């Protein structure tokens, strides 16, 4: 089991870039395996928002080992070629530690900024964008003619350190099946349960059902490749034995990455530092 933490890029001291970078360093020192950030540009939670790519850049400069990534990037709000450059550059900077968590997005930060497209098209747009990302990271000269995106005779260098691509983990709300079918085609799935709030989590039974469905959508070739199954989790941080037993219950149903969901609902980032510093319950 790998263990990561995910923090918001918005609201209160979570929007303190210096503190966020220091927490990334502390997480690595404490034995966490990943440091992830939300990707919002302006949302219902307030006006204090950091750019996630600058956050990850700061984290990359303060760490040597932990994986770094977004949980999750709303791909349809990004130009895929710009996103490809950002992620590849961070993968170079971090010596191959980037992970791209993706989702279809929506909500007020689409509406208020008059982002193009209708919500019903976001899934199709994301499928095209993910294909473009993978093609651009190949380092080959490509052209692409899609319904939503077009590219003519371009080549992106340098390539990411990780090949054939930076891992793409697909987020979605379980039991919705479309995002899970999409996840089966890529490198991992990070589901959240329907109506689960920021201090709750899917049960082991729900996680098992989700992972079983994703696996059933994969070809034999896809199923033979490494695949990440994320539990967007909540540990108490008080009784290590209890936390270890809880993690074990999820590991038994296939979870191989536990990402601790930290937010202002559980405290300020400053208040949560002692919890982070004690490390994961291995």
TrEMBL record:
The keyword Ribosomal protein does not apply. Pfam families: Bac_luciferase. GO terms for molecular function: oxidoreductase activity, acting on paired donors, with incorporation or reduction of molecular oxygen. InterPro entries: F420-G6PD/mer (IPR050564), Luciferase-like_dom (IPR011251), Luciferase-like_sf (IPR036661). This is Luciferase-like domain-containing protein. Residues 1-178 form the Luciferase-like domain. PANTHER family: 5,10-METHYLENETETRAHYDROMETHANOPTERIN REDUCTASE (PTHR43244:SF1), PTHR43244. Keywords: Oxidoreductase. The keyword Heme does not apply. SUPFAM superfamilies: Bacterial luciferase-like (SSF51679).
């Amino acid at each position: 089991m790998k263990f990561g933490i995910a923090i918001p890029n918005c609201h209160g001291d979570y929007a303190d870039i210096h503190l966020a970078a220091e927490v990334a360093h502390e997480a690595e020192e404490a034995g966490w395996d990943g440091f992830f950030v939300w990707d919002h540009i302006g949302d219902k939670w307030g006006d204090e928002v950091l750019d996630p790519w600058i956050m990850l850049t700061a984290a990359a400069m303060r760490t040597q080992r932990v994986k770094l990534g977004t949980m999750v990037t709303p791909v349809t709000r990004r130009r895929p070629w710009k996103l490809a450059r950002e992620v590849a550059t961070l993968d170079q900077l971090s010596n191959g530690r980037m992970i791209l968590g993706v989702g279809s997005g929506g909500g007020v930060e689409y509406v208020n900024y008059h982002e193009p497209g209708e919500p019903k098209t976001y899934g199709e747009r994301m499928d095209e964008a993910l294909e473009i990302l993978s093609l651009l990271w190949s380092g080959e000269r490509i052209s692409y003619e899609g319904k939503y995106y077009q590219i003519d005779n371009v080549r992106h260098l340098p390539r990411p350190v990780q090949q054939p691509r930076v891992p793409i983990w697909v987020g979605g709300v379980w039991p919705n099946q479309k995002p899970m079918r999409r996840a089966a085609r890529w490198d991992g799935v990070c589901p959240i349960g329907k109506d689960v709030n920021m201090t709750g989590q899917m049960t082991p039974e729900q996680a098992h059902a989700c992972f079983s469905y994703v696996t059933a959508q994969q070809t034999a070739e896809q199923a033979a490749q490494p695949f990440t199954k994320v539990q967007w989790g909540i540990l108490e941080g008080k009784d290590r034995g209890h936390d270890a037993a809880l993690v074990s219950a999820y590991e038994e149903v296939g979870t191989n990455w536990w990402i601790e969901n930290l937010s202002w609902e559980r405290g300020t980032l400053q208040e949560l530092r002692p919890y982070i510093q004690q490390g994961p319950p291995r």
